[in-house]
Design brief:
Strand order of the largest sheet: 3-4-5-9-8-7-6
Order of helices and strands: HHEEEHEEHEEEEHE
Number of strands: 10
Helix content: 25-40%
Low-confidence stretches: 1-24
Strand content: 35-45%
Structural class: alpha+beta
Number of helices: 5
Largest sheet: 7 strands, antiparallel
Mean pLDDT: 83
Distance between the termini: 31 Å
Shape: globular
């Protein structure tokens, strides 16, 4: 989109505030052309994220892919695990229960909610709350699934407190774009 068109959109939509938000990247989640797709070379998934963000493929070292914005106040972690116990329904249910217990007992987490259910044989879960580390306090949204084939996919979106209003729509779009092939 030509620069002049972007400016006109900003003026027509309400003036300088919208234009400033557009150029800062805060409204990237509204523009489908501002996202690019990543296909994992090791695992059967794709995910889309803003072109202005960076993807670090750490699967060889740490079994995760990391997507983050330039100032790293928004981070998405994608983890893939395999365990033979996930192949059994009881193993998948136990894994989700253990995850909830882990969130509830670790002092760096304050869990707002944790939900899990079985869908087509997979145990899917969603959690949200606060997480504290050396960099500060993060709001997090975590979603994933323990699958009958023994694999588990885990996606965590973390936003430094104070950046949530700006980043949450983008984070939700990134998470929603995750697809298994």
């Amino acid at each position: 989109m030509p620069k002049i068109t972007k400016i006109l959109i900003g003026v027509l939509a309400g003036g300088g505030i919208v234009a400033a938000l557009y150029f800062s990247g805060a409204l990237d989640f509204l523009n489908p052309l501002s996202f690019k797709e990543y296909k994992s070379p090791r695992h059967s998934y794709t995910i889309s994220y803003p072109r202005s963000w960076t993807l670090d493929d750490l699967q060889a070292k740490a079994r995760l892919d990391v997507i983050h914005n330039a100032n790293k106040n928004g981070v998405v972690l994608i983890q893939v695990f395999e365990h033979e116990s996930y192949a059994a329904e009881e193993g998948r249910a136990k894994a989700a229960a253990d995850m909830k217990k882990d969130f509830s007992t670790r002092p760096e987490y304050k869990l707002d909610y944790f939900n899990s259910e079985t869908v087509d044989g997979a145990v899917v879960f969603e959690a949200a709350g606060l997480y504290r580390d050396a960099n500060g306090t993060w709001n997090f949204i975590q979603r994933g699934a323990f699958l009958p084939d023994g694999k588990a996919y885990n996606i965590v979106a973390r936003m430094l407190t104070g950046s949530v209003d700006e980043l949450k729509p983008t984070m939700e779009r990134i998470i929603a774009s995750f697809k298994l092939e």
